Amino acid sequence: MFLGLTTRPTGWGSHWSPSSDVLEKVMGFRSSIAAVVMPLCLAIAAAGSAWAQTPAGQVAPPIAPQAAETEAAAPEQNYILGPDDVVEVEVLGRADFRTRARIGADGKIQLPFLGDVEAANRTSRELGEQIARALEAGGYFNRPVMRVEVVGYASRYVTVLGAVNNPGLVPINRAYRISEIIARVGGVRTDGADHVIIRPENGAERRIDLKTMAMGGAEDDPYVSAGDKIFAPTAEIIYLSGQVRSPGAVPMNSDMTFRMAIARAGGITELGSERRVQVTRGGEKLKRVDLDSKVQPGDIINVGERLF
Questions:
Q1: Burial, 103: exposed, middle or buried (Cβ in 10 Å; 0-12, 13-18, 19+)?
Q2: Distance of alpha carbon 120 from alpha carbon 79, whole angstroms
Q3: Total of domains in the chain
Q4: Which of 91, 109, 120, 161 is the most buried (most CB within 10 A)?
Q5: 147 and 124 in contact (C-beta within 8 Å)?
Q6: Is 277 in contact with 216 (CB distance < 8 Å)?
Q7: pLDDT digit string (tens) for 119-144?
Q8: Does the pTM exceed 0.90?
């Protein structure tokens, strides 16, 4: 017995048809098979279609790693060589041609076989191509593969002076913004002003507010160029005396008010009073003092005792 089919009775003759319940079971079995097979066929067809659309042997390039490598290599590749820069030159696979040379004041380096070679005012890639052509033209190597690496940056720099923690020359091997240069010299000292002055090698002097530079857009933090000078001035000083907790000289900034200056000095003591504030400016006492007005360099602020 299979799927409810019964054997045909003997002697029935050639005309025999299954019962209706048998037909229903057969049709149900076919539907079950179709429900399983059809999705599988569709999945195989979709996979085959996708495979057919991909050229054989094609592998997607590693975009992210290549982009990172390109970005990392860009500074050196775009750096323009100059006097006192140090380069390492090598023909790959040849131990007899590998040297490290400093570019002289005349812009040249000394290389094996070639002697003096112009190196200044070129990128490392351009210098490598130039050396490869010279070696091949001289018959020293056939299609040499060059590696030129900058191992010492000295020709292109920015000068940073004034109230910074590490003043001096800052070599630049790529495009740097002012904020990056200031960070490289340790930042502005606590007694520094709230602005720096940049004097380009060619162009007008410009004052850059530090707060605006840090919080503003790209136009508030411009790029520097080789030869630029950045000066961080010392902050102007005001003086506080009398009934404040820390009397003495206080560095001022451009937005400082009398109230802010008193706060910088620790605030008013229990014996002092805001109504007893006197300000001497340019040798003369101000007749009226608004604590929310701005101070000026050299102001002398005295907080008197309260009247009981």
A1: buried
A2: 11
A3: 3
A4: 109
A5: no
A6: no
A7: 999 999 999 999 999 999 999 999 99
A8: no
